[in-house]
Task: inverse folding
């Protein structure tokens, strides 16, 4: 049985309307990707958030400030920078934080920062306990993805807030 050959594609017919739009708009500039995060830029962002923490300056918090606070907490807790934030990880984390602020905290970045603080205080206690019990290296790190994309820690936070309200604290 002989195979049928597909007919050749039809030639592009002239489209004056499309040509007029192309001529009017011209070529659109290519979208620029933000530069990938380097270790030096990450260190600079952490220094910036440390300054804000010291001054207790929480005006106009941006998602990148919350990611920088996460990076600082990661370094303080584990003694190592969060390598997951290098490269495109920084931009992904900032987008995840922005969505979390919008969807989960009704646009209140300070409330999201309170969540971050609670999560890291809890993780610092857990890490200290692991080290005291000789369980170094066991247990999961608190990564930006787990913290800002997943809802496990956020749900724990809300449960804790509910318990505090019930107890009248």
Result:
């Amino acid at each position: 049985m002989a195979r049928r050959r597909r007919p050749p594609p039809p030639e592009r017919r002239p489209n004056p309307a499309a040509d007029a739009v192309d001529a009017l708009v011209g070529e659109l500039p290519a979208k620029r990707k933000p530069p990938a995060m380097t270790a030096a830029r990450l260190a600079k962002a952490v220094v910036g958030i440390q300054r804000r923490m010291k001054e207790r300056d929480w005006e106009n918090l941006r998602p990148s400030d919350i990611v920088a606070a996460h990076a600082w907490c990661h370094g303080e807790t584990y003694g190592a920078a969060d390598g997951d934030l290098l490269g495109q990880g920084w931009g992904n984390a900032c987008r995840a934080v922005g969505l979390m602020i919008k969807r989960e905290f009704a646009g209140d970045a300070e409330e999201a920062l309170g969540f971050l603080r609670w999560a890291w205080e809890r993780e610092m206690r857990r890490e200290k306990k692991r080290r005291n019990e000789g369980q170094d290296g066991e247990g999961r790190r608190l990564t930006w993805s787990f913290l800002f994309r997943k809802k496990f820690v956020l749900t724990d936070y809300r449960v804790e807030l509910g318990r505090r309200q019930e107890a009248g604290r």
User: Anything to note?
Assistant: The CA atoms of residues 8 and 14 lie 18 Å apart.
